[in-house]
Amino acid sequence: MARKGDVVINIEKCKGCEVCLSACPEQVLALSNEVNAKGYHYAVKVNSNCIGCANCAVVCPDAVITVYREKPARKK
Amino acid sequence: MSESNIINPENLVYDKTSVMTDRVLHYCPGCGHGTAHRMLAEAIDDLGIQGDTIGVAPVGCSVLAYYYFDVDMQQAAHGRAPAVATGIKRTMPEKYVFTYQGDGDLAAIGTAETIHACNRGENILIVFINNGIYGMTGGQMAPTTLEGMKSSTSPRGRDIQSMGNPLKITELVAQLPGTYYVTRHSVQKPANARKAKRALKKALEYQKENKGTCLVEIVANCPSGWKMTPAQSNQWMEENMFPFYPLGDIKVPSE
Ligand SMILES: Cc1ncc(C[n+]2csc(CCOP(=O)(O)OP(=O)(O)O)c2C)c(N)n1
Ligand code: SF4
Ligand code: SF4
Ligand code: SF4
């Protein structure tokens, strides 16, 4: 099974460009209904299928996303 | 979605490189400049040369690049970045010197500086952001504007007969004996961005060997100038820019 990952989205920096959305192989990301202080709809997680591939963070022009991935399970 | 226990420093796999400052970028939403900056910054970070790198910012949307790269930076008059970089590199040959320039800067007003720096084989890295338009000033036609492409000064599309041909300056400088490594990339998709970073890293490594000018073109979107959403602009770029400006190596060192 793929390792599980998670992302932290710095919503105040997000410009709602949606570039990360199509980069995600697991459809984890969508835009919020609310807007941030600058008036942008920001990226949010909509499921917990993240695999920590970092695709979203790599293409985000504004470096909004930080990615975490659990360590491989240790062999007994 | 709630925060999971996966989020802890031990599991960190991707964070903004410290070669970029924490300033909020002034670029439009979805603009390729931001990702291009970060790929270059990551290349500098990976090579551990942050303290030995000097960048030259252009005139254009990326005029403020010196706010974003946490390395020594100089800003040059429009198109003159390769000349300024020449001076910096010649006085401090041990430093890694790059320019970061748009297509209006590099391929219009700066054509002479670009060609002569490349022909002299200055040991600098030229990062060339080609979005086919003058972004900063309101989307005017650039030498790189495609045939039929609309801009604020070619509202019915570029007409070759009256406006001339789009200029492939990257292919042009690849012909010059002074260039060592010339390649074209993009940053709109994860695989493209990662490849662009590898190319930038390679180009910086070559600088150590004093082999000549390296030029890395990044074909980029300008959603505001093209009057498209970021997603539309990336698709338009893939369908229209890439056929004319094909991605890949144009000149590689014959080792
Ligand atoms: C000597 C001079 N001429 C003209 C200008 C106006 N000007 C500012 S930016 C620019 C074009 C920038 O376009 P490009 O290099 O493609 O960069 P982009 O904004 O698209 O990133 C021009 C013509 C200037 N600042 N200085
Ligand atoms: S890290 Fe990968 S799987 Fe997780 S949200 Fe980003 S793109 Fe999707
Ligand atoms: S790519 Fe970055 S700025 Fe654009 S919507 Fe996603 S997180 Fe926000
Ligand atoms: S005008 Fe174009 S190149 Fe300039 S920041 Fe906006 S999208 Fe980017």
Report what the structure shows:
The complex is a heterodimer of chains A (76) and B (255). Chain A is of the alpha+beta class. Helix content of chain A is 13%, strand content 29%. In chain A, a hairpin with a 5-residue loop joins strand 2 and strand 3. In chain A, 43% of the residues are buried. Chain B has 255 residues and is of the alpha/beta class. Chain B has a single domain (19-250), classed as Thiamin diphosphate (ThDP)-binding fold, Pyr/PP domains (Rossmann fold, 3-Layer(aba) Sandwich). In chain B, the strands form two sheets. A seven-stranded mixed beta sheet of chain B has the order 3-2-4-5-9-8-10, with helices on both faces. In chain B, strands 6-7 form a two-stranded antiparallel sheet. In chain B, helix 1 (32-47) crosses helix 8 (190-208) and helix 4 crosses helix 5 (111-120). Chain B is globular and about 55 Å long. The model of chain B has no long low-confidence stretch (mean pLDDT 97). Strand 4 (65-69) of chain A pairs antiparallel with strand 1 of chain B, so a sheet runs across the interface.
Number of strands of chain A: 4
**In what order do the strands lie side by side in the largest sheet of chain A?**
1-4
Q: Return the domain count of chain A.
A: 1
Instruction: Provide the CATH top-level class of chain B.
Output: Alpha Beta
How do the helices and strands follow one another from N- to C-terminus of chain A? EHEEHE
Strand order of the largest sheet of chain B: 3-2-4-5-9-8-10
Helix and strand sequence of chain B: EHEHEHEHHEEEHHEHEHHE
Average pLDDT of chain A, rounded to a whole number, is 95
Q: What is the CA–CA distance across the termini of chain B?
A: 52 Å
**Going by CATH, what is the homologous superfamily of chain B?**
Thiamin diphosphate (ThDP)-binding fold, Pyr/PP domains
* Tally of individual helices of chain B: 10
Query: How many strands in all of chain B?
Result: 10
What is the helix tally of chain A? Answer: 2
Q: What is the fold named in CATH at topology level of chain B?
A: Rossmann fold
Quote the distance from N terminus to C terminus of chain A. 17 Å
The main β sheet of chain B shows up as:
7 strands, mixed
